[in-house]
């Protein structure tokens, strides 16, 4: 296993990487960095751990939408296109984010 240096939201990390997996790992790092920076730049969330949780939820939601779209029959022309996390209006996701905000807000170390 080799180790690579990456940066996510300006912080350096050393990650273990299987041989031949570096392109996929760097792509994943780019997605995570982009998602976290987008949330940070929106200005509503300041704490790094809250940003990470929200980015993880957004990425997981997007992945679920892609998997759902792949599971739909290929000949179903009326299947909805995958929805990006920015366009998502799923009340379950909104409720989950609110519950996370409430749980994390109880920690006196968060902004």
Short structural description:
By secondary structure, the chain is an alpha+beta fold.
Task: Describe it.
The protein is of the alpha+beta class. The chain has one domain. It has helices at 22-42, 48-71, 91-105; strands at 2-8, 11-17. Helix 1 (22-42) packs across helix 2 and helix 2 (48-71) runs antiparallel to helix 3 (91-105). The chain is flat and about 40 Å long.
Topology at a glance:
Layout: E1 2-8, E2 11-17, H1 22-42, H2 48-71, H3 91-105
Antiparallel strand pairs: 1-2
Helix pairs in contact: 1-2, 2-3
Q: What sequence of helices (H) and strands (E) makes up the elements?
A: EEHHH
Number of helices: 3
State the share of residues found in helices, binned by percent.
40-55%
Name the overall outline: flat
Q: Span from first to last CA?
A: 38 Å
Question: What is the total domain count?
Answer: 1
Please state the structural category: alpha+beta
Number of strands: 2
Rg over CA atoms, rounded to whole Å, is 17 Å
Mean pLDDT: 80
Give the biggest beta sheet. 2 strands, antiparallel
Low-pLDDT residue spans: none
Strand content: 5-15%
The largest sheet has its strands arranged as: 1-2
Labels describing this entry:
alpha+beta, two-stranded antiparallel sheet
């Amino acid at each position: 296993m080799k180790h690579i240096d990456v940066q996510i939201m300006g912080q350096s990390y050393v990650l273990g990487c299987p041989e031949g997996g570096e392109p996929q790992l760097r792509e994943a790092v780019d997605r995570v960095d982009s998602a976290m920076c987008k949330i940070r730049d929106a200005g509503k969330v300041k704490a790094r751990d809250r940003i990470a949780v929200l980015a993880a939820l957004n990425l997981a939601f997007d992945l679920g939408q892609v998997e759902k779209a792949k599971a739909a029959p290929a000949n179903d022309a009326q299947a909805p296109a995958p929805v990006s996390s920015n366009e998502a209006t799923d009340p379950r996701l909104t409720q989950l984010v609110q519950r996370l905000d409430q749980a994390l807000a109880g920690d006196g170390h968060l902004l």
